Amino acid sequence: MFGPDKQSGQPKLDCGGRFGNMASVGEFNSFSASIPATKVELSVSSITFLLQFGRTEVIDNTLNPDFVRKFIMDYFFEERENLRFDLYDVDSKSPNLSKHDFLGQVFCTLGEIVGSQGSRLEKAIAGIPGKKCGTIIVTAEELNCCRDSVLMQFCANKLDKKDFFGKSDPFLVFHRSNEDGSFTICHKTEVVKNTLNPVWQAFKISVRALCNGDYDRTIKIEVYDWDRDGSHDFIGEFTTSYRELSRGQSQFNVYEVINPKKKGKKKKYINSGTNGNPQNPYCNGIDGVMEAYYRSLKSVQLYGPTNFAPVINHVARYASSVKDGSQYFILLIITDGVISDMAQTKESIVNASKLPMSIIIVGVGPAEFDAMEELDGDVVRVSSRGKYAERDIVQFVPFRDYIDRSGNHILSMARLAKDVLAEIPDQFLSYMRVRGIKPSPAPPPYTPPLHVLQTQI
């Protein structure tokens, strides 16, 4: 059913659709904003192939595409909104559809899609007379008013090896769940070549696309090994939710990648790899901190903007679980950038001031750090939305003030360490006093066993 690519010899797919009175996309004028309307999102996939309301992305070498790109439309209950979906086999990079092979089309209305069971319409593609041309599946979902976006990054460890002459070329596919138990694709990552321990690039996605604002909605993430011919090998999958993902990197966000077929066949099967950091987030002493730091240098990617609030909130979640004074948390932030989420950071500090934690900020480099002084509440207590911090928990130190031009680095580093830790004792004691937490009774003095005393005598 597909014509070969005239350049590569491989079939490709491009699709699209038109609506209203069958005018072209450029001629379309939206209805007046004064008419009540509901915004719906159209997701397109097909059983055998597929769609231009704009255009979907092109998916190479497949008869069963599932398109990531969505189309947002205004749905007017009282109006008849006609849609046409045209299917093309893309043979070149030309944007002119007449240069590509036309494979078929489907006519329907937006109301048909919205009114179908589960708002999921399945319709045969009309194309070549006398031949079955496949089926189009279009799903509609009413959009909520959530405008938030989230920046996420994933890594994996010890994935299954799928390539005979190499390792694997893994990528991730994200799906959000639907009420009928089906899933709608919402994102694909890039492919990381020849590795079983990939670190994918950070990406920004709207919360609406990920879960339509429902933080507890199931999100399924599949892991595939990319193949040039489009027959990508399934490695495994796991499920989570936006609420879980929003916790950030922690022991809560480590998932086993499971291949159900392997699990059913092999009794000793455990998993096909993990996502996230499989190591325990706690470190044992300074040596443990240094080891974790050097290990993270191999995978952590530095980027802007400089947002403090997510880091502070992450530590605050740990601190909020300890209320008996048995633990006190100290967050050290080393930054070379000017803070870019000042309002959110102030709010985080105000909330954290009630918890057993302190924050040390070390500014490195020539950047302008005046805003950091505002967070260090030595003179004026930090406030947010008219609410002041319960106590001062921030100490800011600019590293450049401690560079000894004479070359005496030992002395300069000693001064830095002293000033970095200068306010911690008072901050610690202020928390304990406010909570009425008193030190545990001192243990009795050590008395050597009697036989030892006799020996010494």
UniProtKB/TrEMBL annotation:
It comes from Terrapene triunguis. Belongs to the copine family. Keywords: Calcium, Metal-binding, Repeat. This is Copine 8. The keyword Calcium applies. The keyword Transferase does not apply. One of its GO terms (molecular function) is metal ion binding. GO terms for cellular component: plasma membrane. Residues 1-123, 132-255 form the C2 domain. GO terms for biological process: cellular response to calcium ion. InterPro entries: C2_dom, C2_domain_sf, C2B_Copine, Copine, Copine_C, vWFA_dom_sf.
